[in-house]
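Collaborator request, handled under Task 6.
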Amino acid sequence: MSVRFSAEITGANEVMATLLGLSKGRAAQAFAKAMNDTGFEGRRAMQAEMAQVFDKPTPYILRSPRFKGATAQRLSVTIEPTYLGGKGIDPQKILQAQEWGGTRVDKRSEVALRRVGILPAGFQTVVPQSPFPGSTDGYGNIKGSFIVQLLSYFQSFGEQGYKANMTDKTKGRVHRGTKKSAGRRYFVSYGKLRGGARTTAKGDPDQRASTLAPGIWAASGTGGVVVQPVLLFVKRGSYKPRLSMQRIVDKADLYNYLQSRVRFRFREAAGV
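Structure tokens returned to the collaborator:
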């Protein structure tokens, strides 16, 4: 998903360059500056649209639009979400479905949970309306460190990550808690999906599990057990198109903006 502008010095722009006494090289430089002005404006428009149509977009997503600027030798500009490296997911993968819609691709954590038989086929995970304390990043997303702990607790890492799976000793510390956090036990409920609580080594059985919504739950607290949802299991979701590159171009009136910047940059180059 991207916005692209390409141009040649022909027609009215060529006439304007001639009238102002610009050489072809100086006109090309002015044109490149005008296109880069438009690229910056297009990036701001894309960020504004993302902030408006998405629910609590992360700074990572809002920063992702980048533009490849024009030069006098290459009169084209591209504005698109760009992967900046590190542990983040390529924003193109995140945003592609937001433009075209369609089925949501499984997260790596969902693949891992399904592989060990915790997440049923055809289901994905969602954060509950009231997130489990400390589990989210403030933007409605599960923290990476928290999901790693959860996968480790349920022995969900594959053969290559077997050392990351939680030992009984470490699991005991989670159960006991620390001075900073209360002890907790995670367990899986399938509600009416499978007729009762999951009673296996991968999860702690709870008598109330059969009455709970399908998902991963936590029993925690002192002076009485508090049971809260951590991740809920829902049928595989689909995205409705939200982000339209054409709508961004139209709302920002980028084509007319480009023409106005061309006139300004040509006059600037001519000293008029």
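The cover message to the collaborator said: "The chain is about 40% helix and 15% strand. Residues 195-205 have pLDDT under 50 and may be disordered. Please let us know whether this matches your experimental observations."
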